[in-house]
Amino acid sequence: MQKTGTYGNYILLGAASPVKQTLQNALERAGIGEIRSFAGAAPEPAPAPEDSVLLFGCYDVEGGNVDPRWPELLTEAIAQIQIARPRRTLLISDLMVYGKMFGQQRLLGEEEIGYVCHTSADDAAAQWMRTAEHLCSRLAREEGLAVKIVRADWAHIPVLLQAEDGSGTILNSILDILENGAAGEAYNLSGLTQEGLVRKNAEYAKTRSPLAPVRRIPDIGKAENHAAS
Fold first, then answer.
1. Helix axis angle, 221-228 relative to 169-180, nearest 10°?
2. Which of 45, 25, 12 is nearest to 157 (CA)?
């Protein structure tokens, strides 16, 4: 597959996290531009119009250590792109934003949204990431910024990114959405193929209690169709 993401520098904004470091390492191995990473401080120099900006928050990765200031840092990062107006921005989001859903076990499409308790500490991260998605979609819709969203299944992707040599399909999928995705749109992404996700969903459906929440298994058909177009 041909590499994408070959224009300008890559500016990584937001709290330090295992996901941010893994993606930074993958970009460096790919050798597709200068990589600059910032946490709290505003980038110097500021992002130029030709740069690509990736925004990072908190992710549901087992054993991951994330800066507790991540909501503040992500909000600051979104404010920075509002001023700098880079031509390519990608919010790296997480399946946690789906919240809790009931009903038939199914693959979850980007348009679905479940329940998140606004007063529960356990749901605080999901609420903050959901708010970040809304802010980015608003910037795209109301201010014309080319902000896209990758809503990723981080249970599988980091291992694949670590194994890729710079030309792997996961990195290419992320960069393709960054450069060619529709502004304001979210795209589900997984380390499994759509076929593999369908099989996984069917397995859970056989054993799941009808009273239990739906397991969060993403429908990545939108991202796969985009990559094939």
1. 80
2. 25
Question: How large is the average pLDDT for residues 41-51?
Answer: 86
Q: What is the pLDDT of residues 69-83, one digit of tens each?
A: 899 999 999 999 999
Q: How distant, in Å, are the alpha carbons of 7, 30, 109, 114, 208 from that of 213? A: 43, 39, 16, 10, 9
pLDDT for 61: 57
DSSP per residue over 135-164, as a string?
A: HHHHHHHHH---EEEEEE-TTTHHHHHHH-
β-pair type (52-56, 88-94) = parallel
Please give the model's pTM, rounded to 2 decimal places: 0.91
Cα–Cα distance measured from residue 170 to residue 174, given in angstroms and rounded to the nearest whole number: 6
Contacts of 90 (CB under 8 A, 6+ apart): 52, 53, 54, 55, 147, 148, 149, 150, 174, 177, 178, 181
> Average pLDDT of the chain?
88
